[in-house]
Design a protein that fits this description.
This is WYL domain-containing protein. InterPro entries: CBASS_pafABC_assoc_protein, PafC-like, PafC_HTH, WCX_dom, WYL_dom. The protein contains ten helices and 13 strands. A five-stranded antiparallel beta sheet has the order 8-7-6-5-9, with helices on one face. A four-stranded antiparallel beta sheet has the order 11-12-10-13, covered by helices on one side. It has a two-stranded antiparallel sheet with strand order 1-3. By secondary structure, the protein is α+β, with helices and mostly antiparallel strands. The N and C termini lie far apart (98 Å). The longest helix has 17 residues. It folds into four domains: 84 residues, Orthogonal Bundle (Arc Repressor Mutant, subunit A); 52 residues; 81 residues, SH3 type barrels (Roll); 75 residues, Alpha-Beta Plaits (2-Layer Sandwich). Helix 2 crosses helix 3, helix 5 packs antiparallel against helix 6 and helix 8 crosses helix 9.
């Protein structure tokens, strides 16, 4: 066995800073187990524990009284070579997550653990357990459903690993179906929606596809012709092109962030009150339908007239699917 290299002062400090949290999480652990975990000798562990036991934070009197120092169960330490912390200093006074904050973080971790690419579920479960223990109160019990796009993500991840194209029928904003062969590059999410970014062989360029608009998605046996390292993927999920169309809309100034990548970057015109007029760039006017429906009552399409007509016709078609109440029922009195 090769001799161990002596630790320098920075390494000793790092070891001590790592040792205390480890002992808190592993109450009643043997010196040999601690030494094996950190790759040091048992003698170094015993020296560190002895140093911890005389460390602390001075109290109101600026003196180190017994309650201001760490303490251990000396009987077990000396007779059984076992470390049990009996008093902690400052560690318990550190800022902790509230029950609501811990619940929110745990919910996020539950969501991540439901995704196919997160294979190391044990690490996520361990982190959720630590958040539960470290919260100021017991976090609320939450249940997070798995992503509806999980199957599609699995297919895409498999294609990424094997270096093959994916094939799917894509429902575009105009309501038409197109067969696409795509070199998958990256899967990303925005709010609840998942997107595939990849090289589209039909368009001959990088395109972004919503997973919930795909059907009959399969991994093919065609090798990809482009890879992530060969292309520069912009940070923004949606990119404009020279063929994009301008659309002027009105909305409250506070709602501008909801438009995200649709904004053209042109100056926003201030109107009366808190209303503003902004210019959007879309690939075609049909792309406005989902945007306006998702922001119903918030965004008003001003111009061009063709864009207004497409949105109006789409809204009328949706309203027509709901039967109007009979006129006689509306006119009837409460006693009839």
């Amino acid at each position: 066995m090769s001799p161990r290299v002596p630790l320098g002062a920075p390494d000793k400090l790092t070891f001590l800073l790592s040792l205390v949290p480890y002992l808190i999480d592993h109450d009643g652990i043997s010196v040999t187990d601690v030494a094996a975990h950190f790759g040091v000798t048992p003698e170094r562990v015993r020296d560190a524990v002895t140093l911890i036991a005389v460390s602390g934070v001075p109290g109101d009197t600026s003196q180190y009284l017994p309650g201001d120092l760490f303490d251990i169960e000396w009987g077990q330490f000396e007779s059984d070579d076992t470390i049990v912390l009996t008093h902690l200093v400052a560690i318990e006074d550190s800022p902790r997550f509230s029950a609501r904050e811990a619940a929110a973080l745990i919910a996020g971790l539950q969501y991540l653990s439901s995704l196919p690419e997160n294979a190391d579920r044990d690490a996520i479960a361990s982190l959720m357990a630590k958040l539960t223990r470290s919260a100021t109160a017991a976090p609320s019990q939450l249940a997070v459903s798995a992503s509806a796009s999980g199957t599609a993500i699995s297919v895409i991840q498999s294609a990424l690993q094997t270096g093959v194209q994916v094939r799917f029928d894509y429902l575009n904003a105009r309501g038409g179906q197109e067969e696409r062969y795509v070199d998958p590059l990256r899967v990303e999410s925005v709010d609840r929606d998942w997107y595939l970014r990849g090289w589209c062989h039909l368009r001959g360029a990088v395109r972004t596809f919503r997973l919930d608009r795909m059907s009959t998605l399969t991994a093919t046996d065609r090798p990809v012709t482009s890879r992530t390292e060969d292309l520069i993927l912009p940070d923004a999920l949606f990119q404009g092109s020279e063929s994009d169309l301008d659309v002027v809309v009105e909305l409250a100034a506070g709602a501008l962030p909801l438009l995200g990548d649709y904004l053209s970057g042109r100056p926003v015109q201030q109107l009366a009150g808190d209303r503003v007029r902004a210019t959007l760039r879309v690939s075609h006017y049909h792309a406005l339908k989902r945007l306006v429906a998702g922001l119903s009552g918030v965004v008003t399409v001003v111009e061009p007239a063709a864009a207004r007509e497409i949105v109006r016709a789409w809204a009328d078609a949706g309203a027509a699917r709901y039967p109007e109440p009979a006129a006689s029922a509306a006119a009837a009195g409460p006693g009839e």
